[in-house]
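Q: What would this chain look like folded?
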Amino acid sequence: MVREKTVRIWDDREVVYTPRRWRYLREKREKALRIMERLTQFDPILYGSVARGDVRKDSDVDIFIPVKAPSYLIELALEDLTRRRKIVMATPWHLIKGVIEIDEETTVTFPLIDPTDRELEFYRWGGAIDLRGIKTSERVPGVNKKLILLFPTEKGHVEREVVGRESEVAKILGVSVDIVTERVHVLTRRDKIGRTGIYINEEVPDWMSFEEALKTIADRDPNVRRKVKEGGGV
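A: My prediction, written as structure tokens:
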């Protein structure tokens, strides 16, 4: 997939969705609903473009469990859907997460250590809704990878510049100004130097639990070991 670069827009602009785009949104939300209903006990959220509504045919269906829970319970709920299992960590300072791939476009992600408030804010930054929001066809504002804030409308969405409006954006999304300035810095820096990769991205063997795999990684990596200790993990 081609990486999206940040863009600048000077005035708000409205985007009107085509019937095809509305169909893509409906189909992706129906898929998310089927999966999230299995995970009700974990209060799952749907985040990103499918929560905002600005989907394309190739948009991912990203589901996040915002609480630390035994991985076997999550896997039990998804036992006949799982295609691949991974542990990911963006940088040595970020949340350690388990990822269950359902298919090429659909993932369920969950923390393997207790997430901080800042780490949870990341999902509201991009736009997030819960199971009730899906059932009531709710769409929420959020920021895309181009650093554009999107407001849902009846016809589509309105786009607004984020850079220079960090405090306003934080208030609209219900997040701290710190997360907004952090994301602006990360995404604009990525445009200049390119994506530097992900710190941990390891497949979990079928015969091993996520917790066992994390312990194996932590035993060899002091950065992971430190983060696990801080977050009350394995």
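The chain is about 40% helix and 20% strand.
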